[in-house]
Amino acid sequence: MAKFRCSVCNWEYDEDKEPKKFSELPDTFTCPVCGAPKSAFVPEGMAKSDESIKTNVADKVVEQLESFGVKHIYGIPGDSNLPLMEAIRKSNIRFILTRHEETAAFMASAHGKMTDHLGVCISIAGPGCTNLITGLMDAATDRSPVLALTGQVPELYLGSEGFQEIDQIELFSPFTAYSETIARPNQALKLTLMAAKYAYKKPGVSALSTPTDILSEKLDEKIFIPDKRVFKADVMPD
Fold it and tell me: Is residue 198 predicted with pLDDT exceeding 70?
């Protein structure tokens, strides 16, 4: 019997202790800890071919947010946003823990109103993201630049009506300036850029749905230079 290690979080699948061999697991299998796909697992003692890449999608999204001048993120951690939480922990951004996602959205809205800079809130999937709605509506109504990063079930399960899987884009689209799902690693930086751009342009709310398995995928792309890519008005209404 063999052991297989998740190359993202190092969780170990031990065939001696599990009911199935690793090769018999379905392609939809994901790491129970970080949500990484089956392809992210390697036999114990072996290195994955992209081991030289030290950053994942979550790291790059947070790095891009730092380039926008984001210094605070408000929200609640959970299993569906753990890669983002780890990236925030390693960054210079301060995470502000709230007791409820609605509070996080209101704090991000107030941040945008008081500073004219992007307010960012984060939630888990399912009820976590639905709890953001009232605070995000406040931001949309008062034209406050806000970005909501909503945790989501692994991309493989989108549309399956699985546990905590909801159509977040349909949920947020009536009151957001921009709402998209990061469905592939190479979309991450472009969509983060677009989300910030539209939040400033309206100004209003942008929402990015972040499937946990995509957040854990390796990514080594350069971030965009915000001064050349992001619209930010020099004059904001009182």
Answer: yes
Contact by Cβ (8 Å): 110, 85: no
pLDDT band for 228, please (50, 70, 90 cuts): low
DSSP state of 11: -
The yes or no reply on domain 57-229 and CATH 3.40.50.970 is yes
d(CA 217, CA 195): 20
Q: How many CA atoms lie within 13 A of 105 on its CB side?
A: 25
The answer to whether the beta carbons of residues 210 and 149 sit under 8 Å apart is yes
Q: What distances in angstroms separate CA 60 from CA 26, 27, 49, 184, 188, one per listed residue? A: 29, 26, 20, 13, 8
Output the average pLDDT for the chain: 88
pLDDT value for 143: 95
Looking at domain 3-43, its CATH architecture is: Single Sheet (2.20)
Mean pLDDT of 35-60: 76
Looking at residue 153, its pLDDT comes to: 85
Contacts of 115 (CB under 8 A, 6+ apart): none
Domain parsing of the chain, residue ranges: 3-43, 57-229
